[in-house]
Design a protein that fits this description.
Layout (H helix, E strand, L loop, with lengths): L1 H7 L6 E6 L9 H12 L6 E4 L2 E7 L6 H7 L3 E9 L7 E4 L8 E2 L6 H11 L3 E7 L11 H20 L7
Parallel strand pairs: 1-3, 1-4, 4-7
Antiparallel strand pairs: 2-3, 4-6, 5-7
Helix pairs in contact: 2-5
Length: about 170
């Protein structure tokens, strides 16, 4: 996954990582889990944090609420992390092509991702990468161990990528 993401992010100058999901619905929370863990790694917290050319957004179930902020930020790349029914084993990760978004079922957010992506593309010259993680269970329960482990692996990968791309100032 690291190589695939690095290839998609090779010309990245300003990156937004947006986590989507409902923290009350088991594995649906994986996008939020990943972003919150990244925030903790950088000793930050909040709905939106900015460190130099990196923005982390906890969009919860309302990613459409952040479209105006994304237009202001004008990122070169947006990585959306979300729970998605990709037809693989629990915790499997896959990059979902923009033209195939409609073929997948995503988590419980207000607007379909396909509409959000089209809207953003209309206003920003941005590469949008959608990373779906296969859930085990979407119910009123904690995140499953399989999906949490995938989220932890993804966080490790993203930290390495952020450093390699020199998106933040390292002291």
């Amino acid at each position: 996954m690291k190589e695939i993401l690095l290839d998609r992010l090779k010309n990245c100058k300003k990156l937004v990582i947006m986590g989507i999901g409902n923290e009350l619905k088991g594995d649906d929370a994986i996008g939020v889990y990943v972003v919150k863990k990244l925030m903790r790694h950088f000793n930050r917290e909040g709905e939106i944090i900015n460190i130099k050319n990196l923005y982390l957004i906890n969009a919860g179930t309302v990613p459409d609420f952040f479209t105006d902020i994304l237009k202001e930020i004008e990122p070169t790349h947006i990585l959306i992390v979300d729970c998605a029914l990709i037809g693989k084993e629990a915790g499997a990760m896959d990059i979902i092509k923009e033209d195939e978004i409609a073929n997948y079922s995503f988590s419980t957010h207000t607007l379909p991702l396909s509409i959000i992506v089209k809207y953003l593309k209309k206003f920003i010259d941005v590469d949008i990468i959608i990373l779906g993680i296969q859930p085990k269970i979407i119910d009123f329960c904690p995140i499953s161990e399989e999906v949490k482990l995938s989220g932890d692996k993804l966080v490790e990968i993203l930290i390495k990528i952020i450093k390699e791309l020199k998106l933040i100032s390292l002291k």
